[in-house]
């Protein structure tokens, strides 16, 4: 009895490990260089960050004018921290847009995963165009 229970458990674990639950082994690949160069979301976020950086630089120059070294250093540190927050928010926005697009494409095309094309030596379905269309 104990031996048959052990065999049944081993078979169940093996089936779970192999994925007999109907999982699809097809996977997509996405060209990140194209996403960065062609995605309107990516272009808009990059432009926004560049504008905010230029504005921050102008503000720093004005605020530092005529200030002693220690005050100028504090101003610079504050603006640097502000720019890091802006960049972090931009990265989060891009990540959310990309993840939503890849999740939708994976579901629509019934793909088990979407991987970065450069990390896959061969195989996979190129879904770059679909991801570009779905990024918002």
Automatic annotation (TrEMBL):
Keywords: Signal
Source superkingdom: Bacteria
One record GO biological process: protein stabilization
Signal listed as a keyword: yes
Extent of the signal sequence: 1-16
InterPro entries recorded: Chaperone_Skp, Skp_dom_sf
Molecular function terms from GO: unfolded protein binding
GO cellular component labels: cytosol
Similarity-based family: Belongs to the Skp family.
Protein name as annotated: OmpH family outer membrane protein
Species of the source: Candidatus Avacidaminococcus intestinavium
């Amino acid at each position: 009895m104990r031996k048959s229970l052990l065999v049944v458990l081993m078979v169940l674990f093996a089936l779970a490990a192999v994925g007999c639950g109907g999982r699809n082994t097809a996977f997509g690949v996405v060209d990140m260089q194209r996403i960065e160069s062609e995605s309107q979301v990516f272009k808009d976020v990059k432009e926004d960050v560049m504008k905010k950086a230029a504005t921050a630089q102008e503000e720093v120059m004005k605020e530092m004018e005529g200030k002693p070294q220690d005050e100028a250093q504090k101003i610079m540190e504050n603006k640097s921290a502000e720019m890091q927050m802006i960049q972090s928010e931009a990265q989060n926005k891009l990540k959310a847009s990309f993840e939503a697009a890849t999740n939708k494409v994976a579901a629509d095309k019934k793909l088990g995963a979407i991987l970065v094309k450069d990390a896959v030596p061969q195989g996979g379905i190129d879904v770059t165009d679909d991801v570009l269309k779905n990024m918002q």
